[in-house]
Write a structure and sequence with these properties.
heterodimer, A: 129 residues, alpha+beta, three-stranded antiparallel sheet, 4 helices, 32% helix, B: 242 residues, alpha/beta, eight-stranded mixed sheet, globular
């Protein structure tokens, strides 16, 4: 079982901590930079929900495009995971902050940039029954 | 989203470890990585022990352990399993950065730390040593405030007055944060800091003498060839009983 399981654990424990037991819709916004496998994440969420006696009717994933902003020159750009090597994609998959070792601002070459959005799990919305 | 969902998993992951020690100091160069590595290696002979390097910008425990970043392969099992180094469970981000420079602003360092603590599955350990970067930045604040019920701090200082003063400031911050127990290890010293009043009410755990060549010696992973193991035994005997 891959590490999406650990991401699912965080989400389910978060839902539990909010006191939800019956969920109509679990809406999760996922930054595509991390390259999370939605099928595996969905499976893990359902397994963990069942193990923790939580009913979830629907799981909805929303993609969030990555947006990076250079702290030196202010340039903003998107980064498609397909532009990276397999090794780089794998590193960012496990720890998205590895991107700071692998990418530079395409305009000025600075390594001082921030991931404005599209990093990984960025929001969890619960619609209860 | 009000809170970071990873925090729940972090607490669960670390709760299966009997003692989590963060090896800290405000000053760089006092030997946190050397102390963490010595203790973790020596402890792993007798106890289930882990070593986590969270000095993301300047990781160095893999250098001390004579590990090439390319050989650090982590298996996945409902998360990431730490590398098994002949009994010592080990994790460093260098496996992903390939030892390239990793400049991180505070918030990014905090997020990287939370990600790792949430996904790395240590299992049941008696001891986990966390080698931290110097200073008192976002990663430390997470350990100090978010995980203060789980993590115990061990402050490292050399006998230099500059290092001692810096350690005293750090002890003060840790006390304010509510830590009842703060351990202290004197590195590159000869027990001259035992009972030092400047440091305040810390528990003096022991000292590690200045040992030329200790960094290259550690690469052999034979601690007893590097320093008197009795010095580490006395520190560990206290750490294991807390």
């Amino acid at each position: 079982m891959v590490h999406e399981w650990a991401l699912a654990e965080s989400i389910i424990y978060h839902v539990m901590s909010q006191g939800y037991r019956k969920v109509k819709t679990l809406k999760i916004r996922l930054g595509i930079l991390q390259g999370i496998d939605k099928e595996i994440l969905g499976f893990s969420l359902r397994e963990l929900a069942s193990m923790n006696n939580i009913e979830i009717k629907d799981i909805v994933f929303e993609d969030e495009e990555p947006l990076l902003e250079c702290s030196t020159c202010g340039y903003k750009w998107s980064l498609s995971p397909s532009a990276l090597s397999e090794e780089e994609r794998e590193a960012i998959h496990f720890v998205p902050e590895a991107v700071y070792a692998l990418v530079k601002c395409p305009k000025c070459g600075s390594r001082d940039f921030t991931i404005v959005k599209g990093r990984g799990v960025s929001s969890i919305e619960v619609v209860s029954e | 989203m009000i809170e970071d969902p990873r925090i729940h998993n972090i607490v669960r992951n670390l709760s299966s470890i009997r003692n989590v020690y963060a090896v800290v100091s405000s000053k760089g160069g006092v030997g946190k990585s050397t102390v963490s590595t010595l203790l973790a290696l020596h402890a792993s002979r007798r106890f289930e022990t882990g070593l986590l390097d969270i000095d993301f910008t300047n990781p160095s425990t893999h250098i001390l352990l004579n590990l090439n970043p390319g050989e650090l392969k982590y298996e996945e099992e409902k998360g990431i399993l730490p590398y098994d180094l002949k009994g010592l469970k080990y994790f460093s981000i260098v496996a992903y950065t390939m030892d390239k420079p990793l400049p991180l602003r505070g918030e990014a360092a905090r997020s990287a730390l939370r990600e790792l603590l949430a996904i790395v599955k240590w299992g049941r350990l008696k001891l986990l040593f966390i080698d931290t970067p110097p200073g008192m930045s976002d990663e430390h604040l997470d350990l100090v405030y978010m995980l203060r019920d789980i993590v115990k701090p061990i402050v490292v200082s050399t006998p230099s007055i500059l290092s001692v003063k810096s350690a005293a400031r750090l002890v003060s911050v840790l006390r304010e944060a509510g830590f009842k127990w703060i351990g202290f290890i004197e590195n590159m010293g000869n027990e001259s800091l035992r009972g030092n009043e400047v440091l305040g009410d810390v528990e003096y755990l022991g000292y590690i003498p200045y040992t030329p060549g200790i960094e290259s010696c550690l690469g052999s992973r034979m601690v007893e060839a590097c320093i008197d193991p009795g010095l580490l035994d006395s520190i560990l005997s206290r750490l294991i009983e807390l």
